[in-house]
Design a protein that fits this description.
Helix content: 40-55%
Distance between the termini: 32 Å
Strand content: 5-15%
Mean pLDDT: 90
Largest sheet: 4 strands, mixed
Strand order of the largest sheet: 3-2-1-4
Domain Methylguanine DNA methyltransferase ribonuclease-like: 31-104
Structural class: alpha/beta
Organism: Herbidospora galbida
Number of strands: 6
Number of helices: 7
Radius of gyration: 17 Å
Family: Belongs to the MGMT family.
Shape: globular
Domain Methylated-DNA-[protein]-cysteine S-methyltransferase DNA binding: 110-187
Catalytic activity: a 6-O-methyl-2'-deoxyguanosine in DNA + L-cysteinyl-[protein] = S-methyl-L-cysteinyl-[protein] + a 2'-deoxyguanosine in DNA; a 4-O-methyl-thymidine in DNA + L-cysteinyl-[protein] = a thymidine in DNA + S-methyl-L-cysteinyl-[protein]
């Protein structure tokens, strides 16, 4: 599908599902997609920061943001372009740490503690679910940590791909195994 068709689909989705959407007004939540070498990302930005950079289905993420954050959602390139530029710079090897603020309202309180800890994992390194669980003071919560990592709503900005099961076992990733391996290999190269 070409970009204009995708954009038209998004405009139609926004008109139908957001009763307050006005194409020319700046929405409260900027929403769009962005193609990356790891696959398409759904992007959303609020006044607080980036609320989504996710490999989730576009329509499902739109519905979730509509339900959990707000209904005035629309296309706003002015607010999405800085995020797109950082993502492109990351994939181009020119950016190692994202600078944009993020908004973790889509994560549970436990997941927020996990995701905040993950932000300290440096580019080109990995940690394990067990190490993350220990660092947040919940050493027995391996499954909960794995779920928080897999359900990260702000992939890349919060580098959940750097959390692995153990040596030689990358573990699950929202974008799939191939995307996780691509990201890890890109950072190690």
């Amino acid at each position: 599908m070409d970009a204009s068709a995708a954009s038209g689909d998004l405009e139609a989705l926004l008109r139908v599902t957001s009763p307050t959407y006005v194409g020319e007004s700046a929405p409260d939540i900027a929403f769009g997609t962005h193609e990356t070498p790891a696959g398409p990302l759904v992007l959303a930005v609020t006044a607080r920061g980036v609320i989504a950079t996710t490999f989730d289905d576009e329509h499902a993420m739109y519905a979730r943001i509509y339900r959990e954050v707000g209904s005035f959602i629309g296309h706003d390139p002015k607010r999405l372009d800085p995020l797109r530029r950082e993502i492109d710079a990351y994939f181009g090897g020119r950016l190692r740490t994202f600078t944009l603020p993020f908004d973790l309202r889509l994560a549970t309180a436990f997941a927020r503690s996990v995701l905040q800890m993950i932000t300290s994992v440096p580019y080109g390194t990995t940690t394990t679910y067990a190490e993350v669980a220990a660092r947040i003071g919940r050493p027995q919560a391996l499954r909960a940590v794995a779920n928080a990592v897999t359900e990260n709503p702000v992939c890349l900005l919060v580098p959940c791909h750097r959390v692995v099961e153990g040596p030689g076992s990358p573990g699950a990733y929202a974008g799939g195994k191939a995307a996780k391996e691509l990201l890890l290999n890109m950072e190690i190269a």
